[in-house]
Amino acid sequence: GESVGLHLPTLSVQEGDNSIINCAYSNSASDYFIWYKQESGKGPQFIIDIRSNMDKRQGQRVTVLLNKTVKHLSLQIAATQPGDSAVYFCAENNNNNDMRFGAGTRLTVKP
Amino acid sequence: EAGVAQSPRYKIIEKRQSVAFWCNPISGHATLYWYQQILGQGPKLLIQFQNNGVVDDSQLPKDRFSAERLKGVDSTLKIQPAKLEDSAVYLCASSPSGVLNTEAFFGQGTRLTVV
């Protein structure tokens, strides 16, 4: 079936560096995408979203890029901090609010 | 604003026993989701409600799992009988009413261990 997936299961970066987490999706009907952060023992927490009529959206230290041509989504975190260590999931949504998640990438920030 | 409340936080049962989880969504949120998250994996949608109606339960193992949201507010998810492979975190989430394409807000989850 169609699914959302991630290229890298783990990512380790040095504190202060920029992080890029990638996600591939295959459902061309998806029109809304969300990045979630999940810390150990907690539920996923919203980071940033983007709609399919956009190709870039910026938040505080985070940027999401959407390339609909190749069905690719990325999350960029600037000046990564130890508190950014977590598992990051992309999720895709359609007009039924049917939200599906990818497998996740574990980000580890080294001091 | 209070978040999504789930209980219990942890549950350990023997295989073939039954178990129930409870979720109270954010007030006014019409959409409620139940997800199963196996260790090391992303959340898998089990069932989605819009008010008290089911929108999507295509991935719910209906021979053993059931869920209800009778009054369109809180919801329960039941497993009967449980299997070892049901060990996972069960996450409840909700979205605002009448709004498409908006993020879901998650509870802390219930960690189920089947032994």
Explain the overall architecture.
- The complex is a heterodimer of chains A (111) and B (115).
- Chain A has 111 residues and is mostly beta strands.
- Chain A has strands at residues 4-5, 10-14, 19-25, 32-38, 45-51, 56-58, 62-67, 72-77, 86-93, 99-101, 105-110.
- In chain A, strands 2, 4, 5, 9, 10 and 11 form a 6-stranded mixed beta sheet that branches. In chain A, strands 1-3-8-7-6 form a 5-stranded antiparallel beta sheet, with no helix packed on it.
- The mean pLDDT of chain A is 89.
- Helix content of chain B is 0%, strand content 48%.
- Chain B has no helices and 11 strands.
- In chain B, the strands form 2 sheets. In chain B, strands 2, 4, 5, 6, 9, 10 and 11 form a 7-stranded mixed beta sheet that branches. In chain B, strands 1-3-8-7 form a 4-stranded antiparallel beta sheet, with no helix packed on it.
- In chain B, a hairpin with a 6-residue loop joins strand 4 and strand 5 (44-50).
- Chain A binds chain B through residues 4, 31-32, 34, 36, 41-46, 49, 51, 89, 93, 95-104, and chain B through 4, 31, 33, 35, 41-45, 48, 50, 55-56, 91, 93, 95, 100-109.
